[in-house]
Design a protein that fits this description.
The protein has about 475 residues and is an alpha/beta fold. It has twelve helices and 25 strands.
Length: about 475
């Protein structure tokens, strides 16, 4: 296949040379410098099999992963916040031959037996000729492991190329774009979309190291054109906007504001749009599938919707028995299944889990539940395992109830789950972080609020108050951690 990074090609036509490629704080690399540093890394690890990458939010992580891809070596990004037990599992499962790390990084004991290669961002080497095939593994990314130990999704080179090119089509993404982000680099969102995406286009990325509204405003006011974030980041933006005219100016001047990794509450959509005149667009993907759908840059940004299937992606909604959901009516709930070149190859060392994940005709069972509007827009309503509530003969998605609850002035955060009910099958439980802990909204007020916006059968029957909702690194609510006792 053609190179993943034409801009790093030694051919003069493909080399932007002194154009900026990466910036992390005060440190930056041009395309020529990145080609030299990644080429040097590739030379050091050629033929190494799989390599682990200590994926801190630093320049070295980007150089390490690009170097591995240039060398045709599969990279295994490691979360620096992982505990020893999880790290030991990932290392045992993926069996990397060495670990790439920043020179100043202190590595935990679990990595002690691995050969360490420090990444030198000032090293000089040459970009090797690309001899890789479409199906060769590029990354092994470990899933969050909510139902057991994390599984290693083997992502082929074709999936990187097709997803990033499909997003370029949907977002009109070019080499003139400058992306600002502050996402972790051990997940698909921050690493694949947020680092490899700009580099495939020949554009540049400015990584904040750690997200802040001040940093995002600074970069957008200084020429950045795109912002990638997760809902917790956009929530902080929405909270900050009323008292920060510089932030409002920065966002209003951006070409594209993109949210992903979890649903962005409609309330935050509306607050940002009201303050800036710009709407955040959402897309939908998974570790195993990379990106499946997005609102297009030239399409209608619709709060609560993740847009339409990307070029090359086949998407269908199915009933529990596997038959297609017949109606595109915005109400009929089904599981999303997808097929296309964006999919992973397998779960490493898990042929049983791999086989179970696919249908006989090659569609991947995402476990995500959605509805489709008549014009094809997809709206995620939650996960099959935790967000689909069967109550009184209805199939109800938790997501739309959460959005309705967040519109109540007494609610700061909300999560919705189901619990067994002898009459209804399951009853709807609202987990609420009150805006004022001293005066939390009553169940009756919340139930009336939801019933007035959605339908009576979607109102919560139980309310439980919390100081904060449990969330993971990407801001997703960890519903399995909510205690129904």
């Amino acid at each position: 296949m053609s190179s993943l990074f034409p801009a790093l090609s030694p051919a003069p036509a493909g080399a932007p040379g002194d154009r900026p490629a990466l910036r992390f704080g005060e440190r930056s690399l041009t395309y020529a410098e990145l080609a030299a540093a990644a080429g040097a890394t590739a030379g050091r690890i050629a033929g190494a099999g799989r390599v682990a990458v200590w994926a801190t939010p630093a320049m070295e992580t980007a150089v390490a992963v690009v170097g591995a891809l240039l060398a045709g070596v599969a990279a295994v990004p490691l979360n620096p916040k992982s505990g020893d037990k999880e790290l030991a599992h990932i290392l045992s499962d993926s069996a990397p031959s060495l670990v790439l790390a920043p020179p100043d990084a202190g590595l935990p004991p679990a990595l002690g037996a691995l050969e360490r290669v420090d990444v030198d961002v000032h090293a000089r080497g040459t970009v090797p000729e690309d001899r890789c095939a479409d199906g060769d593994p590029a990354l092994v990314v470990y899933t969050s492991g909510t139902t057991g130990p994390p599984k290693g999704a083997v992502i082929p080179r074709r999936a990187l190329a097709t997803t990033l090119d499909a997003l370029a089509d949907a977002w009109q993404w070019t080499g003139d774009d400058v992306l600002v982000q502050g996402l972790p680099l051990f997940h698909v969102h921050g690493l694949v979309l947020g680092i490899l995406g700009p580099l495939r286009r020949g554009g540049s990325v400015r990584h904040l190291g750690r997200f802040s509204t001040e940093g995002a405003a600074r970069e957008l006011n200084d020429g950045a054109t795109m912002l990638f974030g997760v809902p917790t980041m956009y929530h902080r933006i929405a909270e900050t906007l009323p008292a920060d005219p510089e932030l409002a100016k920065a966002l209003s001047g951006a070409r594209l504001l993109v949210s992903g990794s979890a649903a962005l509450p409609v309330h935050d959509h509306e607050r940002i749009a009201a303050a800036t005149g710009r709407r955040v667009i959402e897309r939908y993907g998974m570790t195993e599938t990379l990106m499946n759908t997005s609102v297009r840059a030239d399409g209608e940004p619709r709060a609560g919707a993740v847009g339409v299937p990307l070029p090359g992606v086949e998407l269908r909604l199915v009933e529990e028995d596997g038959t297609p959901v017949a109606a595109l009516d915005g109400e009929s709930v089904g599981e999303i299944q997808v097929r296309g070149p964006n999919l992973f190859t397998e779960y490493l060392n898990r042929p049983d889990a791999t086989a179970a994940a696919f249908t006989e005709d090659g569609f991947f069972r995402t476990g995500d539940m959605a509805v489709r509007d008549p014009d094809g827009y997809v709206r995620i309503v939650g996960r099959k395992a935790t967000d689909l509530i069967k109550s009184g003969g209805y199939k109800i998605g938790a997501g739309e109830i959460e959005n309705a609850l967040l519109e109540h002035p007494g609610v700061r955060e909300a999560a919705v789950t189901g619990e067994p009910d002898p009459d209804l099958g399951e009853r709807i439980v609202a987990w609420i972080v009150p805006a004022d802990p001293a005066a939390p909204p009553a169940l009756e007020a919340l139930a009336d609020h939801v019933a007035g916006r959605l339908a009576p059968h979607k109102r919560p029957r139980v309310v439980r108050y919390l100081d904060a909702l449990p969330r993971n690194d990407m801001g997703k609510i960890m519903k399995r951690a909510l205690d129904h006792g």
